[in-house]
Amino acid sequence: MEEFANAHQGSEGTGLASNPLHRYCADPDLVMVGDRWYLYCTEDGLPGWSSHAFYVYESGDLCHWTRRRILDLDQVPWWHGGQGAWAPCLLVRRGRCILYFVADGQIGQAVAPGPTGPFRAAQKPFIARGDYDCLPIDPSVFVDDDDVPYLLWGNGRAYMGRLSPDGLRLEDGSVRSAVPDNFREAVTIRRRGDTYYASWSENDTRDPGYRIRWSSAPSLDGPWTVPRILIEADHAKGILATGHHCITRVPGRDDWIVAYHRFARDGRGDGCHREIVFAPLDFADDGALVQVRPQVGSYWYPARNPVTP
Prior knowledge:
Helices cover 0% and strands 43% of the residues. By secondary structure, it is mostly beta strands. Keywords: Carbohydrate metabolism, Glycosidase, Hydrolase, Polysaccharide degradation, Xylan degradation.
């Protein structure tokens, strides 16, 4: 277990000076359980994205973090030394935590009694290579206001399927797919009021032009608006390859946070040396997402108690 922090003193919304995790990490999934933040991500900084372990980062303010190892690929029965551990995400259902993750270019599933594990992997891939017409990577979860959970994934083509109430399987006949705009990967959906927001990454994560676009609709069936940019590179600030994000609502509040990765700003920035940062997400009066202007540092959301469910 490791603990680390990096923050300016100041009021709500104060920025951090740099990468808040002090590590190379990518593909964030940020969730709040109780009054604690939990960040699941890809361990980066290795050639070919070859990490073989998953960690969870725990915080009360997006600033001070504790790191815990939660799953090794050696503990995954169907992994036999292929591609590495990528893009985990968490679903909390019926008192259990379900981790969806990528290993060997397939999506796996593991279950634990709490967000810090220990996680036990299923015997077979949840979505195997060849099950659908895409590379099955970059899972994300969406739980609608009626408490129905969905899993999204894909590369080149986006897929979404309704999960069973316990989150352990996909419901028969529920999977749908689309190719929104210049979709590449990392599709996610969130709902605010009566509006659904889909967002995704386009270009390759090694491309300095990697960026995030979004669209909205009155239902999951559409119609979806013309895509717009949510986050893109700022070359003047040396901020490049802003992509693979997640959007998280603070429970009980209309406060929203976007976590995303980009090239690390330590001189080693590329597609295998990435950093995760946080930013507030705002909405215009008409409900449109306000474009996020990336900053050199990161956003700090101070701890607040109590947090209502």
